[in-house]
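pls design
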């Protein structure tokens, strides 16, 4: 998927003024959560966000 298509998806969102809390899953252990550590990394062309639970984040910090 190219960046233009991704931008079109983002622009199609109906952004609410009030924050919305949605559940999602840890990228490593797949645990369901409503709060997460958000880790951004740059992979040359894209900035990528990874969500980790508290336990997996602690493991990530050790390395
Ligand atoms: Zn986890």
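designed seq:
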């Amino acid at each position: 998927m190219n960046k233009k298509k991704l931008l079109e998806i983002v622009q199609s969102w109906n952004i609410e003024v009030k924050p919305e809390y949605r559940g999602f899953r840890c990228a490593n252990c797949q645990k369901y959560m409503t709060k997460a550590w958000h880790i951004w990394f740059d992979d040359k062309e894209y900035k990528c966000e990874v969500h980790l639970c508290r336990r997996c984040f602690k493991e990530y910090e050790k390395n």
